Amino acid sequence: MQIIDFHAHAFPKKVAAKAIEQLETHYNLNINNTGTLDNLLVRAEQANVYRMILHASATNANQVESVNNWVANVSSSKIIKFGTIHPEYPEIRRELDRLKELKIRGIKLHPDFQKFDLTDKKMYDLYEIIGDEFLVLFHVGDDVYPTEDNYSTPKKMAQVIKDFPELEVIAGHLGGYRMWDEAEKHIIGKDIYLDTSSVFQYISLERGSELIEAHGVEKILFGSDYPMKAPREEINNILNLDLSLEDKWRILTKNGLKLLSELKML
């Protein structure tokens, strides 16, 4: 089985420990992975993962080029690289063109860490520039802020895909991290991909199975959210879902291979 992990993060060695500490504080978690690229690849090997999509977000505009340079210099046959961009970055078009020259055709946007609202005008300007040129994985949902103040609610994600139907979107965390009732109301069933990252420590496998079936298994992608979780642990959660063996295979392998092949990212 050629397992595709669509949602994994790693950090340069010199900042990995600090990044893990910040993640633990933000999400109130104990993380048992180092967050380095070496550790990510070890965890991938332990889980027999075929390809991992590597994400790294610039938390401010000044980091955009350095983060993209680090991602571009990663060398591993297991890694498919996603770049970063920030709405405050002054040369968005130039940097997106540079990413394409570097053969990077995906972008990760994390509103809660990058401190922008999904429906902000500056973000709408960014979506216009991105168009259909990149596959965009959005972090959606967060329980740290009250719903009305949250940058990335499922309702806001639904508004974005309505206003920009040409965007190639993956909504992380089954459409809304720790906001799954709202995700069910606004995201589930829409014609976008969802990933399974950072879901099953909060909802039951039964509830997860219900949401997946309601959305459509063909639009679900496996994601471990390393370093939050190790891929092997999250693969076991998929295998224990109340779904057919064929549907589990679709989530772990078939859907990811199909999407990456269609976008010529393999």
UniProtKB/TrEMBL annotation:
GO BP terms, alphabetized: secondary metabolic process
Q: Does the keyword Lyase apply?
A: yes
According to the lineage, what is the superkingdom?
Answer: Bacteria
Q: Where is the Amidohydrolase-related domain?
A: 4-260
- Provide an example Pfam family for this protein: Amidohydro_2
GO MF, one annotated term: hydrolase activity
Cellular component terms (Gene Ontology):
cytoplasm
Supply the alphabetized keyword list.
Lyase
Q: What is this protein called?
A: Amidohydrolase-related domain-containing protein
- What is the native source organism of this protein? Selenihalanaerobacter shriftii
